[in-house]
Design a protein that fits this description.
Helix 2 (52-62) crosses helix 6 (151-168). The chain has a three-stranded antiparallel beta sheet with strand order 3-4-7. Strands 1-2 form a two-stranded antiparallel ribbon. A two-stranded antiparallel sheet has the order 5-6. The chain has eight helices and seven strands; from the N terminus they run E-E-H-H-E-H-H-H-E-E-E-H-H-E-H. It starts with a strand and ends in a 5-residue tail after the last helix. It has a single domain, classed as 3-Layer(aba) Sandwich (NADH Oxidase), CATH 3.40.109.10. The protein has helices at residues 22-36, 52-62, 82-103, 106-112, 123-126, 151-168, 182-187, 219-222; strands at 5-7, 10-12, 74-79, 129-136, 138-141, 144-147, 194-202. 23% of the residues are buried. Strand 5 (138-141) and strand 6 form a beta hairpin. Bound molecules: 3-iodo-tyrosine. 3-iodo-tyrosine binds next to loops.
Length: 227
């Protein structure tokens, strides 16, 4: 490329993007907020199919996230195979049952009451797709382990972008955190450098889906401006 430049021997290319007037910027930032404000975590899904091409686009969007030294330390496993979904449900419910019955503190369970959640996870089988996000803790450079950087931050950001992409597609999800999650690496036969990070069921909300009447913190409760 003619206007590219070498910095320390590495190619850098000009960055161009559209910018907006302050009025447009204010309107766009407001409408983006209004739109994301509509997003809710949903636990009741239909089995209506979602095209694979949509899931591929969602995953590609997540992978646009910034990451430590651009290592992109993530692997997204997309499961539509009913037999694998069933295996995941059985294993997740076994862990969840144990957690709800003996691993979680009383206070934790009390805090979860408004969410209307329990150890049963039928949605793991109902939904057309499960996306299981794995973090890649290290890469193998020959037979030497090379640790990735800011892995939790990077994969957390990518997952956030995935969640907004799911919302943008008119679909719903839930950040499901079965604990411990190592059964996912076993079922999906992932290599040793990958650890399960989050499980996101993706599909349509059922017509009678209910969500908790949560209120979000207002700006003054969750921000401080220093001007
Ligand atoms: N892992 C359990 C429990 C759970 C924990 C929190 I913190 C939540 O916000 C919701 C659920 C589960 O997925 O049900």
């Amino acid at each position: 490329m003619s206007d590219s430049k070498l910095i320390d021997g590495f190619e850098h290319i000009p960055y161009k993007m559209e910018s907006f007037s302050e009025k447009e910027m204010t309107e766009r930032s407001k409408s983006y907020f209004d739109w994301l404000e509509e997003r809710r975590s949903v636990r009741d899904f239909t089995d209506k199919a979602v095209p694979k091409a949509v899931i591929e686009n969602l995953i590609k969007t997540a992978s646009t996230a910034p990451s430590g030294a651009h290592k992109q330390p993530w692997t997204f496993c997309a499961v539509s195979d009913p037999a694998i979904k069933k295996q995941i449900r059985i294993a997740a419910e076994a862990e969840e049952k144990e957690s709800y019955e003996s691993r979680m503190s009383e206070r934790w369970k009390e805090d979860l009451k408004p969410m209307g959640t329990n150890w049963q996870k039928p949605f793991l089988e109902t939904v057309p797709w499960l996306i299981i996000v794995f973090k890649r803790v290290y890469e193998m450079d020959g037979d030497v382990k090379a640790n990735n950087y800011y892995v939790n931050e990077s994969v957390g950001i990518a997952t956030g972008m995935l969640i907004s992409a799911i919302h943008n597609a008119g679909l719903v999800t839930l950040t499901h955190t079965p604990s411990p999650m190592n059964f996912l690496a076993n079922i999906l036969e992932r290599p040793k450098n990958e650890r399960a990070f989050l499980l996101l069921p993706v599909g349509y909300p059922s017509s009678d889906a209910l969500v908790p009447n949560n209120r979000r913190k207002g700006l003054e409760e969750m921000s401080v401006f220093y001007e």
